[in-house]
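Incident log, structure service

09:12 report received: a user says their structure output differs between two submissions of the same chain.
09:20 pulled the input from the user's history:
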Amino acid sequence: MKTSRQIILITSIASFCFMINVQAQIKYPVTKKSNQVDDYFGTKVADPYRWLEDDNSEETKQWVSAENVVTQHYLATISFRDSIKNKLTAMWNYERYSSPFKKGAYYYYYKNEGLQNQPVLYRQSGLAGKPEVFIDPNTMSKDGTVVPSLPQFSKSKKYCAYLLSQSGSDWQEGYIMDVQTKKILSDKLRWVKFSGISWKGDEGFYYSRYPEQNEQNKLSEQNKNHKLYFHKIGTLQSADELIYEDKDHPLRTINADVTEDEKFLFINMSEGTSGNEIWVKDLKANTPLSLLIKGFDTEAQVIDNDGERLLVLTNAGAPNYQLVSIDPKNPGKENWQVIIPTRTKLLESVGTAGGKLFLNYLEDAASKVYQCTYQGYYAKEIKLPGIGTASGFHGDRDETELFYTYTSFNCPATIYRYDIISGTSELFRKPSVSINPDDYLTLQTFFQSADGTSVPMFITYKKGMVLNGNNPTLIYGYGGFNIPLTPNFSISNAFFLEQGGIYVQINLRGGNEYGEEWHKAGMLQNKQNVFNDVFAAVKFLTDKKYTNPKKISLSGRSNGGLLVGACITQHPELFKVAIPQVGVLDMLRYHLFTIGWAWAVEYGRSDKKEDFENLYKYSPLQNIKKGVDYPATLITTNDHDDRVVPAHSFKFAARLQECNGGKNPILIRIGTNAGHGVGIPTTKAIEEVSDIWSFIMYNLEMNFRP
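09:34 re-ran on a clean worker, output below:
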């Protein structure tokens, strides 16, 4: 009988030989090249795969099909791929709930029984009442790709309105339901995108939409002329009242909201993903619209009104944000009253419920929550279970309770019931998962980047792991758009931990973990700092004997896909595996598609000389070099992604396959009937992560653990 050590050795040798054989057999589709060359301020830039930007052409469709065949053939030869999928399916199969929220006589909450494609919205009368299905998106399509937004309820709770998206697209259609009977009204709204719903009584609501689009090109054409409308219940969309448009600035987005007491309407305008302008109207006094916050150099958000004044969260003169009270009749900055002053830690958000404010701070990327009055007095801390992320501190003014969610890397989303009057929390609902969270350790550590900046990261692994410098590791990062990465539980990542991996999440510059200064340090001309942070993290993990470059995989989504692309084209030797998902990979042309123009405030635009020179230095597509040994790369995108169009991934894959000088596989996985990632059905999610983990584990030479 062979010993377990002999079996592992034989398996490893067989796996290694099999890997060489499979990689030698990869034959990529022949991708034609054109003579397309663009002139940017005297610099000639070739773009031979421009034709792949036309996702409607038969030629592109044939290329997509051929690439998927190659990718699926490669993945099918990984012996443990099915085992990974079966394991993930079993781990995924647990009940998941959202925090309840009360509207009228009912409590509402989402529940997924485990493997349902989409969570179902239930309601019940009282916490002990019998649950009934309110909205079940799983009945709206065969493949579970129809996703409703959170319903918004009218003043008396007689109606609710919600938006449906299909196949992952950002385009939505609006519907209205009679809450008591659950009957869908005949009203239907089309061409809705990047919109909220704000009711005025039971009469109707404000929403935003674009003009009617060309059906064939709606997933790629630039989005222009966003307008604000009021829809009256029981009327056709064509009769909707135009409330606001800006013909002089067709690339602005426009949204509206109404305060809970319906005294104020405020309109929020944006020219990109950061910076906004706010206009306000007193609905009770029927005043004209007036400017509240001038755009577009700062961020501002109306939280609520306190009588005749508005409470506004802003970073004007306060990089870590402050809460101020503004009289809309005298909105000048010199008249602001500071309610919550700026502090050394980031005031990430402010919620309201029961006539109280809930201040959610980030302290080294973890939540700290406090309750206080509308005047900023009597602050008390809401004690959380540990270092993690808390959310959900919202409710109506007449409520005496709310429900919030707490999660961390080793703690699934757990729901607590909070008594607003006494300030006490009690456990309401805790999920049961197939792993023991106590088996894992999460620590937060700091490392120095190239310019001496101290950058935090979270490292999670199974207790008892030997730090021998040879542990398989996944590094995940984002680093942009003022978005923080905070502790969060993922069943997918839990699988990797069970397989003996280390999960590392870096709080890169470009996010807002430490406020606007942290954001600015990773945007525009400072974008290289973000990539340098990753390189420094790899050095730290190597020096501390967690792992080494031959055992490191790097993953990121969207702007994080850009991160992966830039890192592997600048320092391919630091990574064994790369997973750029739905990535922004052509930095010279991103602004020409759908909502891409809105990212210019973060990246800059190639039609401006200074911006071009900066973008050209790090744009992943343009920095692929012939003959370089690139990491094993699995690029993922989806055919209905109209946020970051698939052309980014198509062109990057073609160029990387052409230029790769080593034997590592360069593959692209193109999903169908899926978009940028929000609302992806459970079946598709499991299939995608199964393929990703199969690719990572195979190329890191890991053995599957049943």
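09:41 both user submissions now match this output. Likely a transient worker issue. Closing.
09:42 reviewer note: Confidence is low (pLDDT under 50) at residues 1-22. The domain at 440-547 is CATH 3.40.50.1820 (Rossmann fold).
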